[in-house]
Amino acid sequence: MNIEGISGYCDPRFEEVAKIFSSAIKSSYETGASLAIEHQGEMVVNLWGGYQDEAKTKRWQEDTIVNVFSVTKGVVATCAARLIEQGLLDIHQKVSHYWPEYGCNGKQDTKVIDLLCHRAGMFGFQCELPVDEWRDWQKFTDLLAAQAPFRAPGASQGYHALTFGWLVGEVIRRVDGRSVGTYFSEEIAKPLGLDFKIGVDESDLSRCADTLMVSNESALSVLKIMTYVPDILLSKSMRGAKGAIKSGDYAVAFAARGLDSDDAVNSAEWRLAEVPAANGHGTAASLAKLYGILSNGGSRNGQHLLKPETIKHVTSVHSGGPDTVLFGLPYQFGLGYMVNAPLTPIGVKPGMFGHTGIGGEVTFGDLNNNLGFSFVNNRQHNIGNLYKTANNLSKALYNVL
Predict the structure, then answer these.
(1) Could you say which of 3.90.1170.50, 1.10.357.10, 3.40.50.450, 3.40.710.10 is the CATH number of the domain covering 6-400?
(2) Helices (H), 43-197
(3) Distance, CA of 246 to chain centre
(4) Are 362 and 346 in contact (CB under 8 A)?
(5) Residue in 336, 395, 34, 325 with CA at minimum distance from that of residue 151
(6) Under a CB-based contact definition with an 8 Å cutoff, are residues 87 and 59 in contact?
(7) For the residues of 103-134, what is the DSSP string, one character each?
(8) What is the pLDDT of residues 184-215, one digit of tens each?
(9) What is the DSSP letter of 195?
(10) How confident is the model at residue 382 (pLDDT cuts 50, 70, 90)?
(11) Fewer Cβ close by (within 10 Å): the C or N end of the chain?
(12) pTM score, two decimals?
């Protein structure tokens, strides 16, 4: 198939999907992106196009990797799932059983499942976040271990935008001895041939696409106006959103304002660090393959990832909203995976699980259709249009299926 402006392969059955991807690139809505779809164990779409940089001097290549932000959480969830399957990690055990220093200041009864389901009440830092010291793992975990939670652990769901990675990652490190980035590399990425890293190597820096960030302050200002609207004029869901906005949890969870600038997320300090909630870098093909394996029994070419019963367990709903950080929306989580993510493709069909990213990235598996889907890009859009391309691609895909 030869479609102007994009490279790669597309099974003719999915030509309409390829056209939508091409249009997003040609219109300059997306600066650069890649799309991959695995169906029943076969890579039926692997496309890329556009540019790695805003000046459009470097074409997007097959091996271009890009920061996928919170899509990384689904990768971390897969690491935790392996330890759960092996009996090394008990989700109903207290976090302090594995990480003794954590059991203080109201966190004594926090369970591992609370961390995985964003119910630990630890969605931010009580102090200012050290945004220019991303490689100092100990600094972040020590701060989290010592502080008090913002909400009673287990009592409510509040999306742990950045802290999820250090909290779950430190439990993984305490159980296994390896950092989550090293664990994923040695246990999953290398055996399965996945080009994805949590903390890139210096040799990878030259193939990293620049991430082009936008400020969402204007959109947030509009949302804040809603807090002045009388409840009688709002629907039940909007009243929930109003309460969530007034709580201020969003501002706490996304307090790393330094990440609003291109310089921060495109710096070597950020890329070389392990920030397991937000700085995984990889290709769409690798993520589609990972979720394709998970959606096709959990093994590939003699390499075991997870048992089917484990996959069913970790992708079942373990927590539901309203989410106090994500504007009171009814997000549903498995054990680290999003099972329903409003305004995105995830949850549109039963059997879906995966994760979205704040840059517009969406990666998911579909157990009922034996599917792995990944769209990754490098231009962030405003909140209202954040997942426009991924939604259009997913809709076209399911029209074919």
Answers:
(1) 3.40.710.10
(2) 71-85, 95-98, 112-116, 137-146, 163-176, 180-184, 190-192
(3) 25
(4) yes
(5) 325
(6) no
(7) S-TT-TT-BHHHHHTT-SS-SS-SS---TT-T
(8) 999 999 999 999 999 999 999 999 999 998 86
(9) -
(10) confident
(11) C
(12) 0.94
Q: Where are the domains of the chain?
A: 6-400
- Residue 333's pLDDT band, with cuts at 50, 70 and 90, is very high
Q: How many CB atoms lie within 10 A of CB 142?
A: 14
d(C-alpha 131, C-alpha 162), whole Å:
11
Q: Which residues are catalytic?
A: 70
- Helix axis angle for 15-26 and 388-400, nearest 10°, is 160
DSSP lists the bridge partners of residue 196 as: 282
281 and 204 Cβ atoms separated by less than 8 Å: yes
CA 159 to the chain's CA centroid: 11
Residue with tokens 């394709």: 292
Tokens standing for 162?
């950045």
Distance CA 4, CA 242 (A): 45
What is the residue whose two structure tokens read 């305004």? 343
